[in-house]
Amino acid sequence: MSVATQSRPASAAGGRPAQARPRRAMSAGRLARIVSLLLLAVVVLFPVYYTVVGSVMGPRDIASAPPSLIPHTLTFANYRGVFHAIPLGRQYFNSTLVAVAITVAQLVCAVLSAYAFVFLTMPFRRAFFALFMLTLMVPWEAIIIPNFLFMAEHQLRNTYLALILPFLAGGFGTFLLRQAFRSFPIELRDAATLDGAGHARFLLQILLPLSRPALASVAIFVFLSAWNQFFWPLLVTDSPRMQTLQIGLSSLNDAEQANPGLILAGVSMALIPTALLVALGQRFLVRGLTAGAVR
User: What pLDDT, on the 0 to 100 scale, is given for residue 110?
Assistant: First the structure.
C-alpha cells in the first residue's frame, strides 16, 4: 500500500510537466498564428484604410511629409468635388446596369449548360464539354479586335449592348456549376422523374435551391469581373455619360486637374458595392468554390 501511495504522487508529479509542455507549445503556436494573421490583415487592409481615410483629408494632410495616417480635419469636399468633376451618378448607374446584366446572363447560360452536361444523355458529351472548356484558354486580347470591329460596323459604340454583348456567356461558371451538380446523386433525379417532375421542375424546385452556394460564388465572381472592367469600356465608349465608373475615375487622374483627394473619394465610392458583396457572400463563396470537390 505504501508503495502504491508513493507511486501515485510520483506519477502524477511526473505526468504534469509532460502534459503541460504540449499545452504551452500549442498555445505558443496558436499565438504565433494569430500574430502572423493580424500582420497579414494589416498589410492587406491598409490600402483600403488609407483610401477611405484619405478621402476625408484636407490637401495639407494628404501632401504632408511624412504622410498623415489620421485626418486632422474632416472634410467632405472631395466627395462633392467628384460629382462636379465627372457625371458620377450616371457612371455609377452604367457600371451597375452592365455588371448586373452580365451576371444574370452568365448565370442563366451556366446553369442551363451545366445541367445539360450532367443530367442529359447525349452523344459525345465529354468531347463537347472539353471543347467548351477550351474557350477558357483563349485570351481576351485575341478576340478584342474582332469584337470591336463588329461593334463599330453595326454602330453599337456608346451603347449598353456594346458593353454587355461580348460577356453574355463564360466557361468558368459552367465548369464550376457542373462540378457542383455532379455532387448530387443521380438517384435524386430518378426519384424526381418517378414523382412526375420534368427537367424544368427538377431544375427550378430541387437542384437550384440546393446549389445556392455555387450559384452565389459564380455570381460574385462574374459581378466583380464586370464591375472592374476597364479596357473594353474604354474602347467602345467615348461619351462621359455612357462610360462606366472605372473610366470616370481614371479621368480624375488627368495631369491638369490631378487631385489625390478626389481620386481617393471616387475610389472609396467604387469600393462600396464590391466590399458589401464580398462581405455578405463570403461564406457562399467558400462553400461554392469547394462544391463538388468530394463526391
Answer: 92
